[in-house]
Design a protein that fits this description.
Layout (H helix, E strand, L loop, with lengths): L12 E3 L21 H12 L3 H14 L8 E5 L5 H9 L3 E6 L5 H10 L6 E5 L12 E7 L8 H11 E12 L6 H9 L8 H15 L4 E4 L12 E7 L10
Parallel strand pairs: 1-4, 2-3, 2-5, 3-4, 5-6
Antiparallel strand pairs: 6-8, 7-8
Helix pairs in contact: 2-3, 5-7
């Protein structure tokens, strides 16, 4: 059984929810030895520094591609950290957004950002291991994640959980990299500042396809943006998953 979360109408909620494990197993409680305050502060500085140009265009891309501007319900940003993407998504949608992160040291930073942006009541923070999300089946209209996938111990568990938590008719957009419309010179500067854990896009795409096949997810697309003039700049690998709505009536 997964606990049902109740989202209040005012204020920003900090919910610490027990999850799963060690290594590939879900954590049952925050692990401050593995996920430290210092790590949270480093990522927060990067989000406000070299990564700052990424979040607004990525939010705009997500909202436009998936028609989220007038949609209501729940959105989850898995591994949002200091929450800069959540702030931009709140500004562009009517969804209530949840910052679900394994390091709760991010949450005071996130909550301050939300309040400072005038978005109190529009977002919540929940301690969550991607391998055992503390949300009921079919809860979220949309799930996004930028940059957390390299840190998942078990992609099969995590992607299975994402699919489980998606509502029928919902969409997930998961990956690492840059928004496709980020200006080339801006993208170059972001990449010059660091690129996170190394990876090969072809290998990542193969792994995603293999894992999705294992868990029986068929309705998906993999995006590898290659904008003109961006040769030599890694724009990343992005996975788009759709969950079928069995109530939809299809034309015969």
């Amino acid at each position: 059984m997964h606990p049902k979360l109740s989202i209040p109408s005012a204020g920003v909620v900090l919910a610490i929810v027990a999850l799963a494990a060690m290594a590939a197993e879900p954590l049952r409680f925050p692990d401050s030895e593995r996920y430290t305050r210092e790590a949270a502060l480093r990522m927060a500085r990067a989000a406000e520094g070299r990564l700052a140009p990424v979040y607004a265009p990525l939010a705009e891309q997500i909202v436009e591609d998936f028609g989220l501007r007038e949609v209501e319900g729940i959105g989850i940003d898995l591994g949002s950290g200091p929450g800069d993407l959540v702030v931009e998504l709140c500004r562009r949608t009517r969804l209530h957004w949840v910052n679900a992160d394994i390091n709760p040291h991010f949450f005071p930073i996130f909550l301050e950002k939300i309040e400072r942006a005038g978005l109190a009541g529009r977002a919540s923070a929940v301690f969550a291991d991607a391998q055992a999300l503390p949300f009921r089946d079919g809860w979220a209209r949309v799930i996004v994640s930028r940059g957390s996938i390299p840190f998942w111990d078990d992609w099969k568990l995590a992607l299975g959980e994402i699919h489980r938590v998606l509502a029928p008719g919902g969409v997930a957009f998961i990956g690492r990299g840059l928004p496709r419309d980020l200006p080339i010179e801006v993208a170059r500067k972001v990449r010059e500042g660091g690129s996170g854990p190394p990876y090969e896009p072809e290998e990542m795409e193969r792994k995603l396809r293999a894992v999705l096949g294992e868990i029986g997810v068929r309705d998906y697309r993999i995006h590898r943006p290659r904008p003109a003039g961006g040769e030599g700049i890694r724009f990343g690998v992005w996975l788009e998953i759709h969950k079928a709505d069995p109530t939809e009536v299809k034309d015969p």
